[in-house]
Amino acid sequence: MPRPRLLLCAARRTALLLALAAALAGCFRLEVDVTVEDDGAGSFSMLAAMSDQMLAMADGDNPFLEAQAAVDPAAMPEGAVVESYAQDGFTGTRWTFPFAAGGDVGASIDRAAQRVGGSALTGANGPFERFELRRVDGEWRFQAVIRPLAGDDAPSSLGLDPQSAALAQQMLANGWYRVRITLPGELLEHDADRVEAGALVWEIDIFAAEPRTLTAASRVDAGLPAPLVIALAALAILALAALAWLFLRPRAHSSP
Description:
Layout: H1 4-23, E1 28-36, E2 42-51, H2 52-57, H3 63-69, E3 81-87, E4 90-99, H4 105-117, E5 128-136, E6 139-146, H5 155-158, H6 162-171, E7 176-182, E8 186-190, E9 194-196, E10 199-203, E11 212-219, H7 226-248
Parallel strand pairs: 1-7
Antiparallel strand pairs: 1-2, 2-4, 3-4, 5-6, 6-11, 7-10, 8-11, 9-10
Helix pairs in contact: 1-6
């Protein structure tokens, strides 16, 4: 027969597990998605949603929808869209905005995220310790360090046994925490968990106690510099005009 102390320990672990699930919003979806086009422009989006079951337990209070309602349209970057998300029993919001081509895309995204959501990606309340995405010498380089979501509340810190930790993972199996990056050109290297339809996907462990570094690189065809392309096009037009004048100009007739 189990000792009272063992029963007490088991009860504490169960209560701790339930508290952990509640602290992590039970079941949620978080996703950061960046797509870079061939010309260096692209789009950034962030999805944040809670399960409808957890919303029912919280009397329908959804902090993501509340944040969406608080957005000032005048403060949003041009082309930014904030829309509701409702899929597979999850409700929340998705923030999407375009960014122009430039050398330091990561910094542009950081500034735009602060304008839309009120907090930069790498700010004190942001999900990343570092977020860098830039083009250097014909290569796109991505490097980010993502903060642990659970922190000191990770199972290893809480002392959950493997069985309890596995149960916690199952409770949150329908949700996810992902970073998705799509780079142009030929992929050189990456440490993503998988490649899905051309996008690099990192599945972030919500119970991790340590930061995780994400890296990727691709090579793009540099092509001809834009000024040279313009100059060649102008020369081609002049050459065609000269040929047209030679063939179409009136010819002088000799006297009989």
